[in-house]
Amino acid sequence: MISVEEALEKILGYIAVLEPEEKHVLDCLGQVAAEDIHSPIDVPPLDNAGMDGYAVRAESIAGASEKNPQPLKVIGEVPAGTVSKGKVGRGEAMSIMTGAAVPEGADTIVPFEDTDGQERHRSGVSLSGVNIRRALPLGKNIRLAGEDIRSGDLLVSKGAVLRPQEIGVLASIGRARLKVIRRPVVAILATGDELVDIDKPLPFGKIHNSNTYTLATQVQRYGGIPRVMGIAPDDMKELSRRIQEGLDSDMLITSGGVSQGYYDVVKEVLAREGEVAFWTVRMKPGKPLAFGVFRGGKAAGRKGGVPHLGVPGNPVSSMIVFELFARPAILKMMGKQNFVKPTIRAVMEDGIKNEDGRRIFARVIATRRDGRYFARTTGGQGSGILTSMVKANGLAIVPEEMVEVKPGDSLNVMMLDWGEE
Fold this sequence. Notes:
By secondary structure, this protein is of the alpha/beta class. Helix content is 19%, strand content 30%. It has eight helices and 27 strands. The chain has a six-stranded mixed sheet, sandwiched between helices. Strands 7-4-6-5-8 form a five-stranded mixed sheet, with no helix packed on it. A hairpin with a 2-residue loop joins β23 and β24 (372-377).
């Protein structure tokens, strides 16, 4: 058996960053920029109003107050999206909407609420004049040209993960398409004669295939594109054929068939048709984990084949193995560099026994009280109890050398739902 760290190092050593693709900016959320992007324009392109009001000269309203309003002549209006040809002189004003270009001569925007403009409008009084009830400094409520972005500014660096704010700033410069590292296609194949798909009747002695659905949605969650391949029987020839069908993907994940039973044939197919890097890891759950490379296919890995992760058939083992190993592999393919899940230190409220010297990933509920984190297990910790994952928000990590965790001991807890990619 190898350690969790050794297993991850071997897996990532086989994984290469995928090639770029060009696509519409709206479809790039969560992907990594494959190019530096500079702005071709200033944003905003012109001085514009920061709110609805009146464009004036600051000198025209000096000393204005509620008790001493300053009357101004209204010479026009500037709706949003327009540029006025008029010029604001001393003692004059133009009504203006948020975002509209500031007319020549004006240097300050007075909000409507600091005038009697709205009262005039409601009462039918002439709108050819307005009383300003507040003095404002020069430049107040004006957004200057280029105050957000200057032409030539580097807005997105190659390697940056595109969040909604990056998408928005690219839209603000009119950038409709860009190059990003493409999302990996991950083939998912369940194995086992005992499995029945979820839309089929369940014969006595069979179980529904849940692993495909947890794995596929985990792939989606971290940015990959799942390719669901259904169920393969415990038959070497048929399994080999189905695996070959999946080798036009960037990565292949199989569930089941990696233990030491007579019918666990996945690792045998891998050994015959590819290269086995390892097949047991010193962890619980998830010890029977096969990793290697199948020859042929798209050669997404550096070593000339398609990376294959054979996860255990038990549903909890399958999910935890994915979090620890498949998730970082997918992120690396996408050009991301941060593979670490957020981790906290928590005081355990119940005990855990470590009977065979493996690293335990216990499903826990972590809560914060009085400035400290506390964690308790979610009940039964069997690798077939999928509801233990449903109830959990973290995995408490029991080191290999720790024989027993007692209430009050502190453990690192890897949070499952914090810091989503």
